[in-house]
Amino acid sequence: MFRKYVRNGYVTFIIREAIEVRIPIKIYERYSKRYSDRDIITYCVHKDIYNHITGRKLYYITEESGIPLIGHTAFGLIDRGTNLIQVRPCSGCNLNCIFCSVDEGVSKTRVTDYMVDPDYMIKEFKKLADFKRRHCKNQNIEAHIDGQGEPFIYPYIVDLIKKLKNEADVVSIQTNGTLLNERIIEELEGYLDRINLSINSLDEKKAKILAGRADYDINHVKSMAKEIANSEIDLLIAPVWVPGYNDSDILDILKFGKKIGAGKRWKPFGVQKYIRYRFGRHPKGAREMTFKKFYSELRKIDESLILSPSDFGIAKCKSLPKKFKIGEKVRLKIEMHGRMRGEMIAIGRDRVIQIIGTEKKPGSFIDARIVRNRHNVYVAVPS
């Protein structure tokens, strides 16, 4: 499950091609006289952990860490007041899409990644799902695995999906499809209900440009789309329409999806609008459509492309109570580095709070003022 090499004064372990653990050689040599490599990886405190895909510092969040799983958008669980619970087991991506809303992959803005232990995620998901069931009678609970990146870089993704199916009525996932193969698709049949697959162009050259990688293989992704469509798992194809780049490709993608049999149970397509986010990527020359224009263009193609939550069985459902009010001043302990420079993550009242505009270090305390609490996602600034 792991491989090992020695370089630049460290013994480095690569775990499931996702987690990189670096231990100084002198420390490793001392420990290795009494302990196995597995024990050293688990218990040695003199180690640095990185995301092997992105190369960024990685926090591996376990129940023992004391880090709550509600409060942040990069990891954990998000409750947006419906019967769908977003499950975000990790951050990081193997692509560098030129329109990425969170500047993932090779990033100029993201400096930290997070990964949640699967057993901890399941335990906390069950609590939230049970809360939903108590307050939302006769509604299916959906676990939707997405995130700021590619969920299939998570080394325990198959195990997570199987366990989520014990707690949720519907399990779905969002993916770029590059890490899928026939074995994984077959293994997930009976556990995974729907795959939302990103395909932004069928043209090889254009697909590579949009993905931001010269080794992006659209033919592999098309092959996986066919495998999904022929399996028990439902397929939804979700292109991002980037004006000036793939305008002429949307119709080809729709024809491809219809031909292979996407959408056996739910709608087959979820065309997404390119949105210019402040800290996202802005493709040169891309013209952002207004929502009015976007929906008008979709209607010209096919009225059925206009989606609503009810198309996927999504309905309003009581949210978890909020723990902080807007404007509230609190004293918090900083626990981790944030996703971007100048950000830190603190804990309070069993919630994670993102603090922006601070250079304080983990372990220190800070007086802060809450400026966001929507959907139990908390942001604060120094007060």
Give structural attributes.
five-stranded mixed barrel; 23% helix; 3 domains; alpha/beta; 383 residues; TIM Barrel; OB fold (Dihydrolipoamide Acetyltransferase, E2P); six-stranded mixed sheet
Question: Would you give an account of this structure?
Answer:
The chain is an alpha/beta fold and 383 residues long. The chain folds into 3 domains: 2-52, no CATH class; 64-312, Aldolase class I (TIM Barrel, Alpha-Beta Barrel), CATH 3.20.20; 329-382, OB fold (Dihydrolipoamide Acetyltransferase, E2P), CATH 2.40.50. Helix content is 23%, strand content 25%. The protein has helices at 25-32, 37-43, 118-135, 157-164, 182-188, 204-211, 218-229, 250-260, 291-301, and strands spanning 2-7, 10-15, 19-24, 48-51, 57-61, 76-79, 84-88, 112-116, 142-145, 170-175, 194-197, 234-237, 240-241, 272-273, 329-337, 343-348, 351-356, 365-372, 378-382. The longest helix is centred in the first third of the chain and has 18 residues, at 118-135. The mean pLDDT is 97.
